[in-house]
Amino acid sequence: MRKRRPIEVFSISFLDLLSGALGAVIILYVAIPKKIAEQAPKNDSINEVLVQSLKKTEAELAQVKAQLAETSKKLVLADIAKNEGKSGGKNLDIGFKFKGKEILFIIDTSYSMIEEDRMGQVKAGMKMLITSLAPEYRIEVIHYPLGERAPFKTLWGVPKGNTLINQMDVFDFIYALRPSGGTPTRNVLLFALENYESISDIVLLTDGAPTFHNSNKKDDIYEIMNVVRKKNHHKVQINCIGVGSEMTKDKTSDRYKFLSLLAGETGGFFVGF
């Protein structure tokens, strides 16, 4: 069984405290020994003075660590208490209005995602989205392309509950993503609409206009729209998140028009960043 990476809970207040505590540690290690060294008598007892000061410093460090641990515990408990009474646990207002609670995330991992650290932004955004959804949501993730081997790759093949264990599978899946290849958006959208009959929403995260698989040749966005329209028998809401500065600079570009139209036709949201 592969090793799970632990979920870490932080808040701005905790980071502020951590920074302050780190400063205290630096002071203990740098300022105190220097001060004692200046004041210590220049004789054979100086070693004993330094040993005593070191013991005192270690004791103070242990106290700081204990305070940090206790503060971290209180922050976690406060976070849990804040979300008690909400359905299933965390259900933060993430500003996105989904049609239902069965969501398929489609992540563009084409080579252009290496620019502006777009891949890193998507990974961070995905973690925030997944952890913000309550456990009763059912989720699945697909990334595209799978290099030259295939137009896409699924995580499970079926939506699963947004439990802690399943979240860890998602995080492992997106952690391994590396930009490569073209942007075969047509392939992955048609696959999703034909093979996930129960999903209520698709969330497409991409930075560019669609291309054909294993090719830099651009696909026809209006033809893709027509095909998606015909295949969307279950009226799935398609939501789009556009990644990269070009997405917000030129609203006349094919990439912008494609995502805004795709989301608009199905009543979904479109966000560019």
Overview of the structural elements:
With about 270 residues, this protein is an alpha/beta fold. It folds into two domains: about 10-85; about 100-270, von Willebrand factor, type A domain (Rossmann fold, 3-Layer(aba) Sandwich). Helices cover about 50% and strands about 10% of the residues. It contains eight helices and seven strands. It has helices at about 10-40, 45-85, 120-130, 165-175, 185-195, 220-230, 245-250, 255-265; strands at about 100-110, 140-145, 155, 160, 200-205, 235-240, 270. Strands 1, 2, 3, 4, 5, 6 and 7 form a seven-stranded mixed sheet that branches.
Brief summary:
This protein is α/β, with parallel strands linked by helices.
Topology:
Layout lengths: L11 H28 L6 H38 L18 E7 L9 H15 L5 E7 L8 E2 L5 E2 L2 H12 L9 H11 L5 E6 L14 H11 L5 E6 L2 H5 L4 H13 L3 E3 L1
Parallel strand pairs: 1-2, 1-5, 5-6, 6-7
Antiparallel strand pairs: 2-3, 2-4
State the oligomer.
single chain
For this structure, what is the CATH class of the largest domain? Alpha Beta
Tell me the CATH topology of the largest domain: Rossmann fold
What distance separates the N and C termini?
37 Å
Shape: elongated
Unreliable residue stretches: 7-38, 80-94
Given helix and strand content, the structural type is alpha/beta
**Mean pLDDT, all residues:** 79
Q: Helix amount, in percent?
A: 40-55%
